Amino acid sequence: MIRVLVTDDEPLIRAGIRMILSSADDMEVVAEAANGREAVDIARSQRVDVALLDIQMPVMDGLTALAELRRSAPEVRVLILTTFGERQNVLRALGAGSAGFLLKDSAPAELMRAVRAAAAGEAYLSPGATRHVVDSLASGGTADRAERARRRLEKLTVRERDVLTLLGEGLSNADAGQRIHMSEATVKTYVSRILAKLECDNRVQAALLARDAGLGT
């Protein structure tokens, strides 16, 4: 079972999310929080696989809570679920280590897909968030940033660079394995090594780094 923490300052929103996730056979909402401070305290005190965080909340906002969770409970995968899909919010969340970003007007099936992806160590972006990331890459890919990215990738082996290239294309572990004739478990091991070497919190950060360095382009 995927153990989920739902964080939102509106009780009706929390109740709706609980109802959606509880309808899945592989998910269990183990706790609710009304602000980021509560979410951090809960994640520290009990086992949580995936934490859903809104952005604008009292006491502690979602992005601050995300940063705190990455420091104090790095095993918890964090999904931002919000009404506010501005480009700045998307990029800040991904830069801080979020496993995904989606909007509250997403379909219930999309919410469940995002939770499953996060629990599996993969990333999930809503279409709107993906557009912001693509726009950022198109407008912000300076020569200096590309050179910094290439220097960071120098520590990778040839095979690790192959796997990172596929991450940059957005492939899952299973799809990447089929492409380069590896088992899904082996790809997962490579991804863990890549994240550790590059000091990235998640696949999205590694994929953006790959794109900055020009892998696969």
Automatic annotation (TrEMBL):
Record-listed 4-aspartylphosphate modification sites: D54
An individual GO BP term: regulation of DNA-templated transcription
GO molecular function: DNA binding
UniProt xrefs under PANTHER family: TRANSCRIPTIONAL REGULATORY PROTEIN NARL-RELATED (PTHR43214:SF24), TWO-COMPONENT RESPONSE REGULATOR (PTHR43214)
Keywords: DNA-binding, Phosphoprotein, Transcription, Transcription regulation
Residue span, HTH luxR-type domain: 149-214
InterPro entries on file: CheY-like_superfamily (IPR011006), NreC/VraR/RcsB-like_REC (IPR058245), Sig_transdc_resp-reg_C-effctor (IPR016032), Sig_transdc_resp-reg_receiver (IPR001789), Tscrpt_reg_LuxR_C (IPR000792), WalR-like (IPR039420)
Every Response regulatory domain range: 3-119
One Pfam family recorded for the sequence: GerE
Name this polypeptide is given: Two component transcriptional regulator, LuxR family
